[in-house]
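Protein modeling request. Please complete all fields; requests missing the sequence field cannot be processed.
Requester role: graduate student
Desired output: 3D structure, token encoding
Chains: 1
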Amino acid sequence: MTDARPLGADEAAFIAAARAGDAAQFALVTERHRRELQVHCYRMLANYEDAQDMTQETFLRAWHKRESFKGHAALRTWLYRIATNACLDFLDKHNDRTPVPSGLADPASEVLYLQPYPDRVLPEDPQEAVVARETIELAFIVAVQHLPPRQRAVFILRDVLGWPASKAADVLELTVASVTSALQRARVTVRGQLPDRRLDWRSPATHELSDGERGVVKSYIDAHVRNDLDGLTSLLRDDLRFAMLPESGTTSVTAEDAVDGWVAGGLFQRGYDDWRGTTTTLNRMPAAALYRRTPDDPEYRLFAVAVLHIVDGRIAELTGFDATGKPWLDLPPTL
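Delivered output (335 residues):
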């Protein structure tokens, strides 16, 4: 596996650290790649905690294999190879890491192990392909989970990171023809799983939330604070898609279904009528962290995180994550 490039500073420093057995220098050289490798693992696994674990596993494997690195490939490429194989090994051992039927009449499915990704730990360079908003949004991450693991790796390396077929083939130990065939099948599957309005992941993507998106999140939080069911409903598109994870069978395809479910679950009734919230961003998407105060508790405690996809000023997709009773994504546990 080679790149058409001379030995760079990273590669030279890594080789020197490997030869000297210098763990501190090794960590210094490899650490700068942590954020993008963690995003890569997240796309493979759709779970933030698993991505953290597999990134650490990548560095452990790299340390144990350090003598095998000769600088023929870029250090970044070598680390991606290790990370990809770590994720593939993980998926081989975890049979629960596949989408499950939603239980609805339509063919929808749910990724019950899905977790959001905090923007604060994304790579800092906004030009990096690894942080393009269209390829980190939840809908895209979910769509990719419908691919078989090795096909998933091909798709991410080729269409997300933009690697040439020969480089992806080297990383996965496949032929170029196999990579090309896998990519063609993967593109069909991903397009079939994405919402109609989200079929293009290869065009230049935006990175910042708009003022309109931030305004909708504020209105969403305000509606909870005011117990304003009509106001909350008015923020939702009629064709809303909603899921509350990690519970199964909660996907709805209309705003009415979603609101009826929330009311049936006690929303704005005693115990679910005293709310506060903060605006945040996850997966480069607008999100609301909701805090609830119960009658017997003096504090507002983190209850759920709602990640929103907003189209034309209304919420088109709402993915809720249970955050009860645990510190999560470094959000404050109480307000």
